[in-house]
Each structure stands twice: as C-alpha cells, then as structure tokens.
Amino acid sequence: MSPARAIAAGAWRNQIKTLAWNELRRSLFSRRSLPLYLLVAMPLVLMALRAVFLPEAARVDPSKATVEFAEVFLFFLLRFIVFFANAVIFVRLFRGEILERSLHYTLLAPVPREVLVLGKYLGGVLSAVLLLVPTICASYFLTYLPHGAPGLQLMVSSSGLGILARYILIVVLASCAYGGLFILAGLYFKNPMVPAILFLGWETLTPFLPAFLKSLSFVHYLVSFAPVPVSLGAFALLARPVAWWLALLALLGSTAVLLFLAGRVAARLEVTYSAD
Length: 276
Description:
Layout: H1 3-28, H2 34-53, H3 63-99, H4 103-108, H5 113-144, H6 148-156, H7 158-188, H8 193-204, H9 211-214, H10 218-222, H11 244-267
Helix pairs in contact: 1-5, 2-3, 2-5, 3-5, 3-7, 3-8, 5-7, 5-11, 7-11
C-alpha cells in the first residue's frame, strides 16, 4: 500500500471510530434514548410479573422454562422488541438528524459518504447490541428464577449457557441485518416507519408463506440458529430448514448489499429541510 493510501485508510478508520462513538452516545445516552429504554423494559416487566404470579404447580419442572423462553423469544422478543429497537436506532441515524436540522454539519465534514454510512451503521450496531443483549440475558434469568435452585442450576449449566449464547448470536445477527435495512429506509423514505411496519407484517407472516417467499425474510434465516425448536402452529407451511452456514451467508450478504445501496443513496443526498 502506498503512503498516501495508508494515510487515507488511517484517516477513514479514525473517522469511523468517531462517527460510531457519536452515534452510540446519541442513541443510548441522550434524551431521545428514552423510548428505547421503555421498549426494552416491557419484556422485563412481563417476565418479572410471570416470576411473581407463576402457579406453584408450574414451578416444579424447570425444563419447561426452556421451551417457554424459546416461544417468548421467537414470537415476542425477536419479532417485536429486537425489530422495533433496531428500527428506532437505525432510522434515526440519518432521518433523525434531518428532523433535528443538524445533518448539514455532518455532511460538510471532509468525510466520504460511504465512510459516513459505515461509521453510523457500526455505531447503531453497537448501540443495539449493548441495549438488547442485556435485555435478553435478564429475560432469560427471569424465566428460570421462579423455579428456584433447580431452575438456576439448569440456567448456568453448560447446556443452559450454550442456549443463551445462541440467542445472543441471533440478536447480534438480527441487529446487523435489520440495521442495514433501516439505515437505507431512513435515507430513502421521509417516513421510514411506514415501510418498517409493512416489513414487520411480512416477518410476522413468514411461517405461513411458501418456501420461496420465506427466503425474503430475515426471520427465516435467524431461526436457523435457534437452539430450541418451537411449534409454529397447524397453519404454518413447512419448509426445508436452512443450514446455519447458508443462513449466515444470506444475512451477511444481504446486509452488505443494503449498506452498499445506503452508501449510493447517501452519495446523492442533498439536505433540504423545508421539504422535510
């Protein structure tokens, strides 16, 4: 690598770090982060109420908690909490600055638009992971808590911690994939939450879609990493499970494509606050 390219690469790395840190601070440590904390508090409150009011007869067998958490994770945490937390974080990376009339300061900085997108994206991923992973871990703990010592022993066993690690992996991959989708939506749509809600409907209907249409859903690939199988109901259409390596390639490949498109859109971005 030539000295000029080495200097440019070093400058871009520093710019990406600065952008990522700024987005992390704005997403988690500012007034606009309050809706995110209220969102992730929802499952914790629900799981705490379950721990308090669970009938004594249901506390005897801690193994049931494993299946119960798998159902809660698949139908509520992944499809609702993880989805909307990422939507809020990544949509606001650009659209939030446009609404706050501060994006022009960022665009005036000598930062390539592709570097700008990548730095903001990495900051969003870090924010989502730091917010959602503790939420999943706390929910997992609260699921086993009402089962007493046998439940806690099962939770901290090698199999229990392995199951939790798989759920954390799903959250990280979901944040990467949804992040690419929502940063592009925030750049392209004036009201990105409308396509976000439409995509949520698509993700929710995934079990009932034909195999070809399932392949257009992130959830279809994310559940390939699920450690505990969950029944999708009598009306769900069967589809051949996706191998974990193929699911990983699909998620990372689609994320790369979405970020590439976001970089192209950002390269042509012109801020006109009067139109927003």
